[in-house]
Every structure is written in C-alpha cells, then in structure tokens.
Specification:
The complex is a heterodimer of chains A (about 500) and B (about 425). The longest helix of chain A is centred in the N-terminal third of the chain and has 14 residues. Chain A has a 5-stranded antiparallel sheet, with no helix packed on it. In chain A, strands 1-29-28-27 form a 4-stranded antiparallel sheet, with no helix packed on it. In chain A, strands 2-3-4-5 form a 4-stranded antiparallel sheet, with no helix packed on it. Chain A is mainly β and about 500 residues long. Chain A has 5 helices and 29 strands. Chain B is mainly beta and about 425 residues long. Chain B folds into 2 domains: about 100 residues, Ubiquitin-like (UB roll); about 300 residues, Methylamine Dehydrogenase, Chain H (7 Propeller), CATH 2.130.10.10. Chain B is built from 4 helices and 34 strands. The radius of gyration of chain B is 24 Å and the shape is globular. The termini of chain B are far apart. Classes of the chains: A mainly beta (about 500), B mainly beta (about 425). At the A-B interface, strand 1 and helix 5 of A face loops of B.
C-alpha cells in the first residue's frame, strides 16, 4: 500500500525515463548506412569441369598421339585447353594433381590483380535514335514528276520567275534571252533578246498591275508582257507615265525609258540605269506590297564590290541603304511583314531594321559561302543554302545559330525557295537534283518546326560544265515547281 | 522434244487445269454468230484461244481477232483467273459476249504547221477545223487542203468549235483566244472556190479580262459557253447581233482558272472543270451552280462527258483521268481512275459508244480506253514530232466516227480508227 501510494504521489518512478547515458550496451555493428559506391563486382566464377576432365572419360574424349604431341608442342598461352584428358580405370589410380599449386596461385593473382569495374552497358536501340517523322505519303501534295520540259534556251538558263497569277513564267539565260511562257502548256509567248547576260528576274507581286524586272549589266529593265489587256494594262501604263514628284533625275541612278538594243522592245516600261562599274544586277527582290524592290549588283564576276539599291516604282526613286559594304553580298530580301531587311554576305546573314536604320541581328550559319536565302511566308523563319552543300534553317526567335543543318546535296546548293502557301520548300543543286521538304511551322512558340524530307527529283536537268539546276520557283496557289537548269531546259514539276 | 521435256511439270499443271472446264454461252451483236449451244471451255483458255475457236468454228475467210466481255468486263487473263477474281463457281454458266477487237489505228496524214495547234474539231463532216497559236483559225478538208482561214484574233486561239455544222444558213465557227474574246464567224460555204478564202468574224463576245480556255456550243446551236482563266463562264446566245455581244449569264463560282466548259446534249445543264480541283454543274436557264464535285488536290485539265451522259471524265495534273458517275447523288469513296504515265492534257469521248474514251498526254501518246477494262489502255499510239524538235505535246483531240484528229505541238494528225459494230449495252 505504501508503495502504491508512493507511486501515486510520484515519489517512485516505476520505469526510469531513458536518457542518453543508458543507451543499449549492444548495437548492430554492421548496420552502417550503405555506401553510395556501387557494390564491387563479383569475381568471375571458375569454370565447371566437363566430361573431358573426368578421371575416366569416354574413349572419344581421349586425344590421339598426334593431338597429344601437338598439344605438348604448343606454348602454354596458345593451348586451347590447359589439360589433356587422361583415363584411369578407377579413382584410386589417379595421381596427385601436379598443377594444383600453380592453379591456386593464378587464381589468387586473378582475384587480387584483375581490375573489377562495373561497366554500365549502353543499351540503346538504334531505331529509337531515329526521329519519328510522318510518312511522306501523308504530307501530299508535293511535286513528284516532271510534267513538262522544254529546251527553251541555248545556253544556261540562269533564272526563272512565276507571275502572281500563276499562269506565266519568265526565264532568262546567259545569252541575254528572256522568254515568257505559259506554265500549263509550255508555249513560248514572247521573247526579249538583250545584249548582256541576264542576271536576275522578278515579277512584281501586285495584283492590280503586271510587270516584271530584268537585271542586266548596270541596268534594271521593267517590262510588261503584251498579253495583258484591259484595266491591268492601263493601270500598269499609268504607273510609269508622267514625272512624279520626288523622282531623282539628277541622282546616281537614272530612271528613263528603255533605249537599249534589245531586239524586241515591246512592253518595256522603264529602264533604271545604275552607276557605272557597279557590275551585273545579280538579284532583284520585290517587297510584298510591290512598290519597293531591291537590286543587288556585284562588280566583277561575283567577287567584287557589291552595291545594294532600294527602288520605289511609284516615285521612281532609288536609294542606297548602305554607304560602304564590306565583303561581297550574296542575297538581299525584304521581310514579308515587318520593315526588316535581310542581307546575306559571304558568311553571315544580317537583319536590319529599315525604319530605325540599325542592325538588329547577325546570324551565323557556319557556311563557308552562302549562295541563297529565302524567308518563310510567316516571317519567323528563313533558310540559307551554301555552296558547301549545307542548308541551314533559322528561327528568328531562337538564336543566331541554325536550328537545323541539312546536308543532303552532293554538290553546291544554287537556290532555295519556300512555297508561298503550302508548307513546302525546295532546294536545287549542281548535282542536278531538286529536293523537296515539308516544313510545317506552328503558331505555338513551344513547338519546333517540323521538317520532313519528301522527295528528291532527279533526272530533270542534265549537268553541264559542273552546273546543274540553277533556280527553282514555286507557283503561288498550287504545289507546282518550276526549275531552270544549266542545260538550257526549263521544267515544270507536278504532284 | 527437248522443249517438251523441259516444260513437262508445267504441262502437267496445264493438263490438270484444262480438265476443269466452264460451261459457256456465246452471244454477239456482230454478224459472226456462233450456233447457239452451250460450250465447255477449258478454264485455262484466254482471249487468244477463244478468238481462235470462233474463227475456226465459223471458218472465217480472214482471221478476225475478237475481244470477250464477261459480265461487262473485258477478259484480260484466262477464264480461271477471271472466275477466281470474281468468285464464280465452276458449275455456273458464263455468258460471254464477243465483238471484233479494235484494230490499231492507222495514220491518214498530218497537216504540218509552224505554230502549235491549240484546238481541233471535226464535227463538220469531211472538214477539220483548227485553232492555232499564231491566232488564226483554219478549215481544212480531209485531203489536208486549206479551205478557209479566219484571222482577227490578236492572241493564240486555244479553242474552236462548230455551231450547227450541218445547217447551211446558221453554220458558224466559234473561236476563243488568249486575247480574251470569243468570235463568231459564219461559214456559209464550206467548199472554197480555188484559193483559200479569208473569212471575217461578225461578232466578238466580250466578257473575260483574261485568256479564254474553252468555247462550247450546245447541240441545237443556240447557246455558247465560254470559259476563261479568270474563273468566269459566260453563256451567250448564237443569234448574231449587230454589235459585240453581252452574255446572257455570267456563271461565277470557280476560284481558279477554268480549263473546260461543256454542255449536256439537251443544253439545259453545263459542266465546267477548273484548276481549283472542282467540277461544277450549272443550270443554263437560271445561270446558277447546281452541284459541285470537289476532288482533293486534283487540278483538272480537261473534261468530257460520255455519250450516254452518265459519266463525267476529268483529267487532272496528278496523271489520272477520274470518272464521276452523274447518277449517284453523292460520291462515295474515291472515283475510279485511268492511270497515265504523263500529264494528261486532253480528253475526248467516243461520239456514240458509251465506254470508249481517248486521252492525249504531254508525252505525245494518244491512249484509247475501254471503260470496261480500266487498268490499261486498249490502244496506244504516238503522234509524230516535228523534224529537229523533240516536243510532241498533245493539246487537242476530236473523235467522230472512224476519225480521230490530234492537235498538238507538232502538227495536226489524222488517224483512222477502225469502228466495229459496237455492243450497245443497256
């Protein structure tokens, strides 16, 4: 009772509270936390004996005299097996094993000298490394065959351009011939013969007027085709009539009527004479709205000083956006929606803001010599083709390094072109082939563009003097491709 | 003997299969009629053996090749193969219809010219009408003499046709050109007196602002349908007014270049095909689009209607000619197609037979099809190319009884097509 009372009063504690001092006398010695090192690899197991190693093997395991001799003559390292099968009629005839000590010693050496590292094996299915691309059949339509071809030119067909209504194409060659032909039949409607080589051709993208520009030596000639009738013809004529305010008659660039020596001067509207010694006009590119166009002229044979002009047709005014240009410029282009201007030099692509007149960005494709440039109709992507066979896809938002580098051509790429409405682009090369790619661009900024190689169009153009297909162009509303080759042929490719 | 021994295992098989035989009843509409009885034909027989059987039974003076129709399909393999494909049992009696094979066409001659021929027509008996890219319309007789030439267009003539070619008073030539106009030129006197006669057009039909791709006249010769690259169809009356003519209706729905507009025989309906991959049907009295056939990504290059007006044929740039059955209200599944190796540019249906079609392509071959066997053409022939040039694109075809006229890059070619007494199927 006394004790009970004492417990109730708290004088006696029935179980002493555990403190740090009275920890258990025994503890699991090996219960240390596992080391983060991988467990040592187990030693390789010794091989199990076979029938031949038996003291009494069947007769067929016993070596013949020659085999025995051969085995004895071989060095120890070269022997296929380290014993000779021997037959004893009973176990008690088996002598002591002479190699026992040696074997044990070697086994110990193995255990203590053999480096035992856990090698992680790379177990990757090679098929899983190939990206999953949709099948080309599901991405139709794209051009697959040559629907018509014409030996239109006697020398290299340098350039080709498609009219905005998709019915007419112009092609120009090295002898100065510019031919206007129907895309659907290939019938040649009109020919202009200039005395200089044709450097470039471009149609004005405007729908209310119809004319195209021909780039010659130090001159750009604007021509309207004669089939044009009615409202469009009068609108085109009135565009170049009179003397609008602001035209620079006294400047370096002279806008005059064509006074050249072409054999057919029908339809020539205007001639833009560039300053002397600026060289051949290598490229003409229109702005989306069709009022402005840029011309790029290169002195010498493509290596000399290059000059860029921006011409305005409504005011008949020309200006040079760059005072002095370092290096040779390969291509110039207007951005399809923003007031930006792309200049591709030999190594870099630079993007300028025309409104603020400053350099926005420099892109480094890593190509030794850029040959061609085209901008996606959305304006967020562009592709660059090079003479060193590479084609680079750039995302303007992403970085100044290419998003993708495609190296599929066997020779230098001559021209690249995006389709204005379909998700397609084409590249043509000196190997005589044209490659068609599917290029889907998503509005979602997080999704990367999908580029799928679709078709290699071969055999359309013969290679002459190491030059293959020199320019390709797409029709605006159909997935049809027009190409011009060094063999003087022009071809239309249809799905 | 060596051959025999080599083929022995094969021969055994043939024996085994030829023991199987089919009961067959032959029918025909030709004058070569077999005695009506049931024949037991070895199942391994094909067209050649069947044709020989008929030739031998009838003891025809000169061997005549025949083609065989088994339940509406032309027999291309052996009978056993056909039965296996169509799931016909050996005991069933097959009714085989036969007709004389289409002989390969013979070339009658050609009319050489400098420029391309955009259109031909031989609807006026014994005369050939051509529209050329040098903007002149010419009329030839069958011995290739130039009778008349019609100038007046300022652009290449892409389409020509006759309006009431058999009537003396209202016979006229309708021509459509790249200059955006169609012209009516009355031709009262087809036979020329001595030298070629220049003819003058009396009216030009003004509607289009772009080149014309086709003109068509209905069977009674009262209306003209013009189709232009601007996506418009114009319906005009052939009553020649004093001045230039305004259209009765402007049919507007196409969003691309229209490549062909044609009339139904009654003239109440018109059909048009376009590069925007659609075929549209128009009510010519009201001037409204009544129906549209949309083919996905198939820009159409030409349109033809079979003589029994049940099927429309449209050639498209993906190298097929598609068949659209007009009796079905809705298209179920993809239409049956005639595959081509090259860009098919022009089509022409046989004037009377409802299963014969000719198509011309850019590779310079005219293909003649029998719609009862669509896998391959019945006849293929190549047009001549100009000397020193490789271009031989075909741009136009016209077919009247026995005569097929081909116009293209090189020249106008005249081909004699053997006409046999046709099986007319109900």
């Amino acid at each position: 009772m006394k004790i009970v009372r004492a417990i109730r009063q708290g004088r006696i504690l029935p179980s002493k509270p555990k403190t740090l001092e009275n920890k258990p006398a025994f503890y699991p010695l090996w219960d240390t936390p596992a080391s983060d090192h991988p467990a040592p690899a187990p030693a390789p197991k010794p091989r199990l004996p076979t029938n031949a190693e038996s003291y009494n093997p069947p007769e067929e395991y016993l070596p013949t005299a020659e085999e025995k001799k051969e085995w004895e003559e071989l060095d120890k390292e070269d022997r296929e097996r380290d014993y000779l099968p021997q037959k004893y009629s009973s176990l008690r005839h088996v002598p002591a094993y002479p190699e026992f000590i040696n074997n044990r010693f070697e086994r110990l050496l193995d255990l203590y000298l053999a480096p035992r590292i856990q090698r992680r094996r790379l177990d990757i299915d090679p098929d899983s490394l190939i990206p999953t691309l949709p099948s080309p059949q599901s991405l139709r339509p794209f051009p697959t065959y040559r629907s018509l071809h014409e030996k239109r030119h006697l020398s290299r067909a340098r350039c080709v351009a498609i009219s905005p209504d998709d019915e007419w194409a112009i092609s120009g060659d090295d002898t100065g011939v510019v031919a206007l032909w129907e895309v659907s039949t290939g019938h040649q409607a009109c020919v202009w013969r200039f005395e200089q080589k044709v450097g470039s051709l471009a149609w004005c993208p405007r729908k209310d007027v119809l004319f195209f520009a021909v780039g010659l030596d130090e001159e750009v000639v604007l021509i309207t085709p004669l089939y044009v009738k009615g409202v469009i013809a009068s609108a085109t004529k009135s565009l170049f009539e009179g003397n609008p305010t602001g035209s620079n008659t006294g400047g370096a660039v002279e806008w005059t009527a064509y006074r050249g020596t072409a054999t057919s001067t029908e339809g020539t509207l205007q001639s833009i004479r560039l300053p002397r010694a600026t060289g051949k006009v290598m490229q003409i590119a229109f702005h989306r709205k069709g009022d402005y166009f840029t011309s790029l002229s290169v002195a010498g044979s493509g290596t000399g000083q290059s000059t860029v002009w921006i011409h305005q047709t409504s005011k008949r005014h020309s200006q040079a956006p760059f005072k002095n240009v370092k290096g040779s410029i390969q291509k110039t282009l207007f951005h399809p929606s923003k007031p930006h201007f792309f200049v591709a030099t030999q190594r870099y692509v630079r993007m300028y803001d025309l409104a603020e007149q400053r350099l926005l960005k420099t892109f480094m494709p890593g190509i030794k010599w850029i040959s061609s440039l085209d901008i996606h109709p959305s304006g967020d992507h562009f592709i660059v083709g090079g003479y060193d066979r590479k084609l680079c896809w750039f995302d303007l938002e992403l970085s100044d390094k290419p998003y993708k580098v495609l190296r599929y051509h066997a020779r230098a790429i001559r021209s690249v072109a995006f389709h204005p409405t379909y998700p397609l682009f084409a590249s043509c090369s000196d190997d005589g082939s044209i490659q068609i790619f599917h290029a889907r661009v998503y509005n979602d900024l997080m999704t990367d563009p999908l580029i799928v190689p679709l078709k290699i169009l071969r055999g359309g153009h013969a290679i002459s003097d190491g030059l293959g297909v020199l320019e390709v162009g797409w029709l605006h509303s159909r997935p049809w491709l027009v190409s011009a080759g060094a063999d003087g042929q022009v071809a239309v490719w249809c799905p | 003997m060596v051959m025999r021994s080599k083929e022995k295992p094969c021969f055994d098989l043939a024996m085994a299969s030829s023991e199987l035989s089919h009961p067959v009843v032959f029918t025909t509409t030709t004058q070569h009629v077999l005695p009506p009885s049931k024949y037991l034909i070895p199942a391994g027989w094909a067209r050649f053996q069947l044709s020989q059987l008929i030739n031998k039974t009838l003891a025809l003076p000169q061997p005549t090749p025949f083609d065989f129709l088994v339940r509406g399909q032309i027999l291309r393999g052996t009978i056993a193969e056909w039965c296996a494909l169509n799931g016909v049992k050996e005991e069933e009696t097959l009714e085989i219809e036969y007709f004389e094979s289409l002989m390969p066409p013979k070339r009658l001659g050609s009319i050489e010219g400098e420029e391309w021929i955009g259109s031909v027509s031989c609807q006026a008996k014994g005369h050939i009408l051509t529209g050329s890219y040098d903007s002149v319309v010419r009329i030839y007789d069958l011995s290739q003499n130039l009778l008349h030439s019609i100038s007046g267009h300022t652009g290449p003539v892409t389409s020509v046709c006759w309006a009431s070619p058999d009537s003396l008073t209202s016979r006229a030539v309708i021509s459509g050109s790249h200059d955006g106009t169609a012209r009516i030129t009355p031709v009262p006197n087809l036979e020329s007196q001595g030298s070629p006669q220049p003819l003058l057009s009396t009216a030009s039909l003004l509607l289009h602002t772009s080149p014309l791709s086709s003109v068509a006249v209905n069977a009674s010769g009262s209306h003209i349908l013009t189709a232009g690259w601007d996506g418009l169809l114009g319906l005009f009356s052939t009553e020649i007014p004093q001045e230039d003519e305004a259209p009765l209706h402007v049919l507007k729905s196409h969003t691309g270049k229209i490549t062909r507009g044609i009339f139904q025989k009654s003239g109440k309906t018109a059909y048009s095909c376009s590069m925007d991959s659609t075929i549209r049907m128009w009510d010519t009295e009201l001037g409204v689009c009544t129906d549209t056939i949309t083919a996905n990504n198939r820009p159409m290059t030409d349109l033809a209607i079979l003589s029994d007006e049940t099927t429309l044929l449209a050639s498209s740039s993906d190298r097929v000619v598609s068949l659209y059955d007009l009796r079905q209200a809705t298209q179920s599944g993809p239409p049956p197609v005639l595959p081509h190796p090259s860009f098919p540019s022009t089509l022409c249906a046989h004037p009377t037979s409802s299963h014969k079609v000719a198509s011309g392509a850019y590779d310079g071959f005219v293909r003649m099809w029998d719609l009862r066997s669509m896998k391959s053409p019945v006849n293929v022939f190549e047009v001549a190319s100009k000397k020193g040039k490789d271009g031989k694109k075909i741009l136009a075809l016209d077919w009247v009884q026995g005569l097929l006229v081909v116009g293209g890059e090189a020249a106008v070619d005249l081909w004699k097509v053997s006409e046999n007494d046709e099986v007319t199927r109900s």
